[in-house]
Design brief:
alpha/beta; OB fold (Dihydrolipoamide Acetyltransferase, E2P); Rossmann fold; seven-stranded mixed beta sheet; U5_MeTrfase_fam; methyltransferase
Length: 521
């Protein structure tokens, strides 16, 4: 049976602090604080010290005789692609299913952690080099650093948690390796691949045991149910998936998704009553759920308005703590997948933005307001904008929960709300904007509106996939090209500093925090 090795717990000395005390005189770096000196962002010279120290440490690691051959042959600085989107070359069997699932969900799980974050830093370097090339082609006023990047790049800041860090998991339902159509877990292979199977999360090292237990319990429940699994909308079936959320304090929420097909309201109520009996009176009570919801959704995804979330039993929400603030998490609330990692992420944002009591923070795509609320004690005030009305309501509730009075939230499209705020923002001393969009990035008209809002002097762009659609956003922010009504006439934003944050240990993903500053004419 596959069980991942635990050799990733390698100390991070060389990445962040080892040998730097004399060179940097105690500036704050990824692994912690060494005394109290230099300012963040770091200068390029200080970053060069970090780079040199890292290379020295890696050399000492690879020179160890018992590990050299294995590390050099197995792990090189290149991207490892997960199996999820590649055709399966062999059938998935009972013996190898967990190995294949590990390659899909945690492709770096057997790699020493210092190599994981080094690898992610190299990936970010490639992203920034490509960005520099695109910006120069777009006539953006950008300069190269000593290592050919458009801005200084800090070493990857590691996650405080390496194991069981995911606070949310969505488990699908499909055929397992034994042919059972009611297997709960994650898919290996493409939906169009006849070899695709669903594998339980039994040995995944980034998934919490409580989530695994709930998935296993739900699988047992639906296998006893007379209703079929819904693999495709056009083939019928009821059970679609289950989403599990939990907090650092141990609170647990589960949301069961079904396809209602032609069910009556009474039939749906009977399913809810049966789920309540199972999870709060029967075998499923061992999961100790604090909250259980059901959503009857006919589409791939449904908003609250399209299909309301029905509370079956328990609390309306669970409460998470992040940087000493409390956040109420509803079934569809956005919250960073790694809570401790989010603390590192938000701290990095505050440091490189260099906010002060005279700063007005503009939080575009604010979601449930986590960034606004975390930053509010350090700025004059925050203004959050999001197109999802329910998310804005959650943000307001979280502000009230934490007794924060210098926050405002507006529901609507950024390109419509921003112009209405333009005059008020113009009277502010310093305006810093933050965007943390989905992987699809921002629409072009949002980028254009940000550039037209002259009060914004700095922009922090947080992206979990900077090589994707976000890259086009970066280029549009700095471009001096365009034709007709799309010709850029406003002052551009150019990258000034970048910080990768490892929010997803053992995967090939990381968050990139990129500081842009407006070019002063």
């Amino acid at each position: 049976m596959f069980r991942p090795k635990r050799n990733y717990l390698v100390p991070l000395y060389g990445l962040v602090v080892r040998g730097l005390k004399e060179q940097t005189k105690g500036f704050k770096v990824a692994g912690g604080t060494v005394a109290e000196a230099a300012k963040i962002p770091l200068t390029e010279e200080q970053l060069q010290f970090l780079e040199a120290d890292l290379q020295t440490y890696e050399k000492t690691q690879t020179e160890r005789p018992k590990r050299t051959a294995t590390l050099k042959s197995k792990f090189t600085i290149k991207s490892i692609k997960p199996e999820r989107n590649t055709p399966l070359s062999e059938p998935i069997t009972f013996e190898n299913q967990h190995h294949h699932l590990s390659n899909v969900i945690t492709p770096y799980c057997e790699m020493p952690y210092f190599k994981q974050i080094r690898l992610k830093e190299e990936q970010m370097k490639r992203v920034l080099r490509f960005l520099g090339k695109r910006l120069r082609e777009a006539k953006a006023p950008v300069e190269k650093t000593m290592i050919g990047l458009p801005c200084p790049l800090e070493p990857t800041r590691p996650s405080p948690n390496l194991l069981d860090y995911r606070n949310k998991d969505e488990f699908g339902i499909h055929f397992g390796v034994d042919g059972n159509p009611k297997t709960v877990g994650f898919f290996v292979g493409k939906p169009t691949d006849p070899k695709m199977v669903c594998v339980p999360p039994t040995y995944l090292i980034n998934t919490r045991d409580s989530h695994k237990q709930i998935a296993k319990s739900f699988q047992k429940y639906i296998r006893q149910s007379p209703y079929d699994a819904c693999h495709r909308f056009d083939t019928g079936g009821t059970w679609r998936n289950i989403l599990v959320r939990s907090t650092q304090g141990g609170e647990k929420m589960a949301i069961v998704y079904i396809h209602p097909q032609n069910m009556s309201r009474d039939e749906i109520k009977e399913i809810m009553a049966d789920l309540k009996r199972y999870y709060f009176e029967g075998e499923g009570s061992e999961c100790e759920l604090d909250s259980l919801y059901l959503q009857a959704c006919k589409n791939t995804r449904c908003t609250r308005e399209q299909a309301p979330y029905h509370l079956i039993h328990g609390k309306n929400y669970i409460t998470e703590t992040c940087l000493d603030l409390s956040f109420q998490i509803s079934p569809d609330s956005f919250f960073q997948i790694n809570t401790r990692g989010a603390e590192v992420l938000y701290s990095a944002v505050r440091e490189i933005a260099e906010v002060s009591p005279i700063t007005t923070l503009l939080d575009i795509c604010c979601g449930t307001g986590s960034i606004s609320l975390v930053m509010s004690p350090h700025v004059r005030g925050t203004v959050g904008i999001d197109v999802v009305t329910e998310a804005v309501e959650d943000a307001k509730n979280n502000a009230t929960l934490n007794n924060l009075v210098n926050t405002q939230f507006f529901a609507g499209k950024a390109e419509k709300v921003l112009p209405k705020l333009a005059q008020d923002l113009k009277d502010c001393t310093e305006v810093v904007a933050i965007v943390n969009p989905a992987r699809s990035g921002l629409q072009q008209n949002v980028i254009r509106t940000i550039r037209q809002c002259e009060a914004i002097t700095k922009l922090i762009y947080i992206s979990c996939k900077p090589e994707g659609y976000a890259m086009e956003n970066f280029v549009k922010l700095g471009s001096l090209q365009g034709k007709g009504k799309y010709k850029e006439t406003t002052a551009p934003f150019v990258p000034k500093y970048a910080v990768p944050v490892d929010m997803f240990p053992h995967t090939n993903h990381a968050e990139l925090v990129l500081l842009f500053e407006r070019v002063q004419s």
